[in-house]
């Protein structure tokens, strides 16, 4: 029996259509075989496709959103995937979808931050829905490389600490040169040591 699941957010709705996979014992309200999906945007053309297109959307949008949370703005996707997303100059995010049909130009959708967040939410809802038993083959998130984390810090801030240390070291060395060295100790002869002691001795009166 055909099943239809809907996942709604403010700016978009993702709808899945499919059937239970009786070969693995599915019954009831379960989608084990995806027959189609559609993504409805507010004021934009509706998207439709097969499972591999929805999986490609997950493989591109979810890592891109995770990078943004970590402060790394880097495009995800490319010629080997039907989906690509990158930051847009002046703000927003440019999502490009390439059709598998020949002579069909790519569809480009510009999303603001709220629309991107809505898209991430519906994709996560599908991926985590226990009623949908499909394998999405979305790679587990990998930690960002150290260089990527460093590049998100402005160069001025990255140089502030080492330059501050160099300045402090230079000031310390300069102050050290300004302080005169202590005078060397003058050796004292043995007779000079005895003279003060003799001078401090009280005179002894002679008996009458």
Gap from first CA to last CA: 144 Å
Helix and strand succession?
Answer: EEEEHEEEEHHHH
Weakly predicted, low-confidence segments: 150-155
CATH class placement of the domain at 3-138: Mainly Beta
Class derived from helix and strand content: alpha+beta
Identify the CATH homologous superfamily of the domain at 3-138: Transcriptional Coactivator Pc4, Chain A
Query: Which strands sit side by side, in order, in the main sheet?
Result: 1-2-3-4
The CATH architecture classification of the domain at 3-138 is Roll
Number of helices: 5
> Remind me, CATH topology of the domain at 3-138?
Transcriptional Co-activator pc4, Chain A
Helix percentage range: 25-40%
Whole-number radius of gyration? 39 Å
Largest sheet: 4 strands, antiparallel
Q: Can you give the mean pLDDT?
A: 78
Give the overall silhouette: elongated
- Percent of residues in beta strands: 15-25%
How many extended strands?
8
């Amino acid at each position: 029996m055909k099943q239809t699941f809907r996942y709604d957010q403010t700016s978009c709705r993702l709808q899945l259509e499919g059937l239970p996979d009786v070969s693995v014992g599915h019954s009831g309200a379960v989608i084990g075989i995806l027959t189609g999906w559609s993504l409805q945007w507010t004021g934009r053309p509706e998207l439709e496709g097969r499972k591999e297109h929805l999986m490609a959307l997950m493989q591109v949008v979810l890592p891109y959103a995770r990078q943004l949370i970590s402060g790394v703005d880097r495009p995800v996707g490319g010629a080997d995937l039907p989906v690509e997303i990158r930051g847009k100059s002046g703000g927003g995010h440019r999502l490009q979808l390439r059709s598998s049909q020949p002579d069909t130009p790519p569809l480009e959708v510009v999303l603001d931050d709220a629309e991107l967040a809505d898209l991430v939410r519906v994709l996560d809802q599908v991926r985590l829905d226990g009623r949908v038993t499909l394998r999405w083959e979305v790679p587990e998130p990998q930690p960002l490389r150290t260089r990527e984390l460093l590049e998100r810090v402005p160069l001025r801030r990255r140089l502030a600490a080492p330059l501050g240390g160099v300045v402090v070291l230079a000031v310390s060395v300069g102050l050290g040169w300004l302080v005169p060295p202590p005078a060397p100790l003058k050796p004292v002869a043995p007779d000079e040591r005895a003279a003060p002691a003799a001078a401090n001795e009280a005179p002894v009166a002679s008996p009458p």
